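Figure S4 source data
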Amino acid sequence: MAVLPNSREQMIAWFAERIADWGANADKIGITAQQVADIAALLSSADNSLNGAIAARTASKDATVLYYADADALRDVGADLIKVIKAYAESTNDPSVYATASIPPPAAPSPAGPPVKPTELDADLLLPFGISLKWKGSVSQGAYFGIWRRVEGEANFSLIDTTKAKAFEDRTLSGTVNSVEYYIAAYRDEYQVNSAALSINIGGGSMSSSISMAA
């Protein structure tokens, strides 16, 4: 069984608790006064080094706290200054400002992609002649809607208007129209996403409607 503790600090404490008794009783425990003096000198050196290490450790922790505080202050002020430089580059429309300041320019915006498909297209009859449309969709990132219509007898749908609203009143219908179809197209950049088509039958001041497959 090992007598000395494995920990250096505990080993120093172990010798410190015994060195006085060893010096007073060297002849009774089989060692010489010189051996006691030698081990006492080593104990003193180790204890001084331990105290120096503890002080250095404390100083290092204090220095680290100060370093973090100074670095965080630099980050806060520096970040605000970078915002000023970027704002100046934008306000003057001068890209060379970024190169002069060695600051990367803003990344080009990623393409938004296709718009959200319009859904839940519904209609109400407007008297004497007209149709009120409403639907759900999104106009985020520059999207907008087109209203497409096909009146009975027409072969193809025609774009009758565009809007950023999610409702539209069609008051251009003739009083002789008995049926009409609509669909809503969502646009963004080069993309177009169509809703399902809504077929409407009109007669006697009332109407019925049905949804067909996507236009």
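Figure S5 source data
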Amino acid sequence: MKSWKKIFCSLFFAFFISSTFSLTLDSVVSYNSVHYRGAVMFNINEQSQVCQYNVVSVIDSFLYIQLNIIGLEAGRALLTPDNILFINKLQKKYYNGDYSVFEKILDIETDFSMIQDIFIGTPTMLPEGLELSYQTDSLFFEYPFFKVLNCEYDTFSLQLEVKRATFNAVPEVNATIPKNFTEIEIERENE
């Protein structure tokens, strides 16, 4: 039962961590928000899955991620400076808590600022063992931003392609917990 928790957390963590860190991006962000979407291919323990994703990042406020598989919403996440909400629509489960979930499941300490900095391309540090490579296209977007990202972490790999990005326009996001969903209780794997 705990293996799906680790995969779910790994999936979102690797997606959060890998989404916008780039050595080629400016260290000063000249936009207030970015909304981007595209396709992502996950490889977890040698099992592949292709998803469509939608990301909204508002500087110093929130990160919102939605994943769709074959046109059906698989899950969404909303991160704020104080809280993380993961909603797994396929299993009708959710996690609503703090950033200690990353330490409990993956032995990685992080917070909203670290994840936000990675999403806007101004990271100050990365977790040990995370390998990233990028393809950028300065003509593709109005601000410096990546087009393709490859990420490897532990038994997880990801290739994310940005198909469309909009800056300084925030679409409406919804991260309410649906009725009849069960809360995920997360504890350390070795407990």
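The helical segments are 2-18, 100-106, 112-119. The chain has one domain: 2-171.
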